[in-house]
Design goal:
72% helix; elongated; 145 residues; mainly alpha
Length: 145
Amino acid sequence: MDEKNINPEFSKIYSNNKLKSFIAGILLIIAGSISILMWIGLASLDIPFIESIILPEFQNIPKEYTIVDISSDSIKELLIICGSIGFFLSIFTILGGIMSIKHQMWKISIVGGILGIFSIGPLFVSSILSAIGVILVFISRNEFQ
């Protein structure tokens, strides 16, 4: 690779062999951001949308498989609770990504990535990106201060 054509900032990261933790940090930040957007979107669904789209699907479940009657209010409460939990998990994932980019606090980067696996995200994209980020952070343990 010709070092004259490399961007100076990238060259600084590349020459210090800290590229793995940098990529892991970017992946964790992307995973956390995607998950935050999804959970905020789900928690902000309004009652008419729930009644028209989500509730009919639950009403198709046979009565012998249900314990309680499901209402649109209970679905809204569940989405708010799950959204809050997912939001906070995603915040820790972004924090782990920032620490990984800064090459500081290896344990926080690992914990943030592991919590990112549980933040799910749309179609498990956030979980997959977080898992890749955790692997890269684990491999690049020597790059941290």
